Amino acid sequence: MNSALLSNIVRFIALLLLQVFVMDQVEFMGYISPLVYLLFIMLYPVDNNRWSFLILSFLLGLIIDTFQDTGGAHAAASLTLAFVRPVLLKLVYGEGYLTKNLKILKSPLDRFFYYLL
Questions:
Q1: Model's pTM, two decimal places?
Q2: Could you tell me if 40 and 15 are in contact, meaning their C-beta atoms sit under 8 angstroms apart?
Q3: What is the domain extent for residue 30?
């Protein structure tokens, strides 16, 4: 099994479990719950298949919807973020994004935070 595929599977499951069992119990000011599962979408490798990425993002949102009983809100948000992600990457990283050799975690810290915002 490819190490990149294995790391993506581990990241998917770990962020899903972290969101469902830990972050859903945390509330800031009584209402705000942190959404760490979105890191899977933001950190997914650039050079992978786009359709599989969209399907995985939708499934991730659907699983979160199942546990939180939110009726599809997370699935819609996850799919929208996955669909808009190339535009965000091009906005933050410019033409370097088009060369497909972008490593988001190894990019400069200011670009990484700008991308996450």
A1: 0.80
A2: yes
A3: 3-83
Measured in whole angstroms, the distance separating CA 43 from the mean position of its chain's CA atoms is 6
Residue 61 CA, distance from chain mean position = 10
Counting Cβ atoms within 10 Å, is residue 107 exposed (0-12), middle (13-18) or buried (19+)?
middle
For residue 42, tell me if it sits in a domain.
yes
Total domain count, the chain: 1
pLDDT digits (tens, 9 = 90+) for 37-96: 888 888 888 777 889 889 999 999 999 999 888 888 999 999 999 999 888 888 877 766
Beta strands in the chain (DSSP E): none
Q: Is residue 65 part of a domain?
A: yes
Length of the chain: 117
